[in-house]
Specification:
The chain has 20 helices and 2 strands. The N terminus and C terminus are likely disordered. It is mainly alpha-helical.
Amino acid sequence: MSLSRYAPPREIDRPAGPPPFGNRALPFVFTIFALLVAVPLGVKGMTAGIIAASFIAMCILLFVLGLEMLGTCIVVVAMFFAPMTAMVLPGASFVTVSDAAVVGGFMLLFPSVIRKHLWVPWQFAIGSLIFFIVACISSFMVPVPLSSLDLTMRVTAATILLPLAFVWWAPRGKLLFWLVAAYPIGQVFNVTYAVIEGPTIGNGRYRGLTEQPTAFGYASLLAICALPFIAARLPQGRRWIVIPAGAILGYGIWISGSRASLLVLLVLVVMFPLLEKSIKAAGFVALLGIVGVAMFQQILQQNNGSNALARLLGSGGAGGSDEARLEGLAAAFKVFQKSPIIGNGFEYDTFLAHNIYMQVLTCVGVIGFVGFMLILWAFAIPLFTAKAPYRLLAYPAVAYIVVGPITPNLGSRYVGIMLAISFVAATIGRMGVDDVVEDDDEDEPEPLPPRHAAGLTRRA
C-alpha cells in the first residue's frame, strides 16, 4: 500500500457488550491501589511525600486522559528528558527520569500495544537472537555471572527491547513528529541550563544535566540528527525554527569539548548533501566552511582552549585522554584474544576501550559481533529503503555507526531511544494492512464548493 495514498475510514465490527476490562476498569483499580500507597507514604518525609503526590497526580490524569493518551504523553516526556542522564531517581542512581518514564508510559500503553500487528526486519530478528543468546552463554562462563548478566540486560534493553517497544507501538503522523521533536527540545533546554550553570571545575568543559561532557556533546549530536526530519515535516513558513535550534545544539557540542561528536558532525554535514542530493544543503555547507576558515583563530581560542575543536587539535588535555583510550583499547584486545569466538562476558573494564565494536568483540566474540552488526543495519536501512521524509529518521543510527570506533556508548539509553526512532522508520507501512501514514499537513486540498467549481468549468 502506498504510504501517501488516502485510506478511507472503515467500519469496524465491534462485539456487543461492555468495553474490555483494560479500557474501563483498569484506571479505577490503579487509582484505588495508588491511593492506598499514597496515604502511608505522605507522612514519611519529603521524598515520600513527592512520590505520593505523583501517584495522586497520575490518578487524576488517568481519569482525564485515559490509559493510552496518558501513556503517550509520558513517553513524549521521556524523550524530552532522555539527554539529561544526570537526573536519576532517589536511591537508584542507575535509573534516570527518562528510564522511569519509558517504563511507566509503556505499561500504560500495553493494553493497546499488545493488540497491534508486529513486524521487524529479518536482520533485527536474527541479529537480536544471536546477540542475546551468545551474551547469556558468555556471561555464565565468567567468574561472576550475575555482574555480566546485569550488563547484558542493560545493553539488551537499550539495543533491542527499547527499539522493539517503539516499533510495536508504531507511532505515526503527528505523534511521531512530536516524539522526534521532544528529544532536540529537551537538549536545547539542557544546553541552556549548561550555559547558565557554567563549566565543570577543572577542565572548563560543560555537561549541563548530563552525567559527563562527552555524553552531553553526543546528545547534542543526536538531537541535530533529528532536525532534518523535523524541518521536512514542518510547514514551509515554520522551517526556520530548526536553524536557531541547530545553532544551540551545535554550541552544545562545542562547549562539551567532545571531539568525537564534533568529528562525526563534520562528517555528516559533508555526507548529507550527497545522500539527499540537495543543492541548497551543499550551498549551506559551503557557506559554513567559508565562515569557519575566516574565523578559525578566533573560534579556536574560545572557552580557553577547552572547546571541541581545540581538543580535536590536541589542546585542552586531549593528549592524556588519547593515551587512556589507547591503553583501554589494547587491554580490550588482549581480553578478546582469550575467547574470540563467543567472548568473555560483559565487564566494566572492557568499556574503557571507548570503541563499541571492540567492546562487542570482547564481550560476545565474533559470533555476537555478527548479530550486533545485523541489528545496526536494521536501524540504518531506512536511509536506503524508506520514503521521504521518513528516511531522514535514519541519521541518528548513521551517527551512532560512524562514531562507534571512538565512543563507549554501548547500552546507553539516551542513545537507544534515538535508535528506536530510526527503527520505527524501517517499519512504516509494514505493520499490518491498516498501517497508513497520516500526513496531516500534506493532505489533498478540499474540493471547491459547487458554485465555484461550476465557474471553472469550460463552457462549450
